[in-house]
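Ops channel
N.P.: pipeline sanity check, posting one input/output pair.
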């Protein structure tokens, strides 16, 4: 089994400005409980009882992206018993991105890159990218990623899905992972209907795979039934072969422990889909 979306951090090894900022609540809640080291042994303790033997680490806002990537690569090398791939940060608006990719290619754990388009309403840290989605530099960088065999993790909110879909439709050979099911932040009936309709613009692209992850970030006191319509819509639009599970730990540990999260997801996902959702889709997508 593969957890396709989680984070690790060592506050003495890598600097994460957002994580070390005190007394500031974020859209995903109060980060105070997770403002401490979360290392590979902590993660393995959380998930290994469920049969996980590998995972994909996703960049998480380090000040120095290369330093974070090298730290994760070291973990992968020092723990051969655990399959660890990683997705590193990139800036698609940077004309020198191909040079950075040259460096990342030297790290054997690197499978792909991520740049967040939008996290949540009011937290548009990716607005520079949003304003430049149609630029030739962004388009060429996406084509470069594809040629080099890198994947792209796409994190955005429903309000910009159609805009992003127009871009990624132009690079059908690039493997794209939609983080957190497209961040359905409005959990009212109307909000879910809006997200479902917007999601079709992304799910219609056959090169996009959906991550069933991070669903607690916009519904902290969640129950199984809160997740059910979201997961069922993802499975309906993408199918089991284009959906994969990610815990988003330790962020989602703010709302539940790993066992509770796994129980909820496994209850909703039909058993006939488990092998794909919890292993095969991730293995194929990230070439594990």
């Amino acid at each position: 089994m593969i957890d396709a979306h989680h984070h690790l951090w060592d506050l003495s090894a890598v600097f994460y400005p957002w994580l070390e900022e005190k007394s500031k609540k974020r859209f995903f809640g109060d980060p105070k409980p997770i403002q401490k080291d979360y290392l590979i042994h902590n993660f393995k303790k959380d998930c290994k009882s469920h049969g996980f033997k590998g995972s994909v680490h996703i960049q998480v806002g380090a000040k120095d992206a290369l330093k974070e990537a090298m730290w994760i690569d070291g973990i992968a090398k020092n723990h051969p018993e655990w399959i660890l791939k990683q997705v590193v940060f990139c800036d698609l608006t940077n004309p020198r991105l191909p040079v950075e990719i040259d460096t990342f290619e030297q790290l054997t754990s690197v499978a792909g890159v991520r740049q967040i388009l939008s996290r949540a309403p009011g937290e548009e840290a990716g607005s520079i990218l949003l304003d430049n989605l149609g630029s030739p530099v962004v388009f060429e960088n996406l084509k470069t990623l594809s040629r080099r065999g890198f994947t792209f993790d796409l994190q955005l909110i429903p309000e910009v899905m159609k805009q992003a879909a127009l871009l990624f439709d132009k690079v059908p050979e690039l493997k794209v992972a939609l983080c957190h099911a497209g961040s359905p932040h409005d959990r009212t009936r109307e909000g879910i209907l809006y997200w479902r309709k917007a999601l079709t613009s992304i799910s219609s692209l056959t090169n996009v795979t959906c991550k069933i992850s991070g669903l607690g970030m916009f519904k902290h006191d969640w129950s199984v039934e809160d997740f059910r319509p979201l997961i069922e819509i993802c499975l309906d639009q993408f199918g089991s072969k284009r959906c994969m599970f990610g815990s988003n730990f330790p962020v989602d540990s703010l709302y539940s422990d790993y066992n509770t999260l796994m129980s909820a997801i496994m209850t909703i996902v039909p058993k006939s889909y488990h092998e794909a959702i919890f292993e095969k889709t991730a293995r194929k997508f990230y070439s594990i």
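N.P.: looks fine end to end. The chain has a mean pLDDT of 94.
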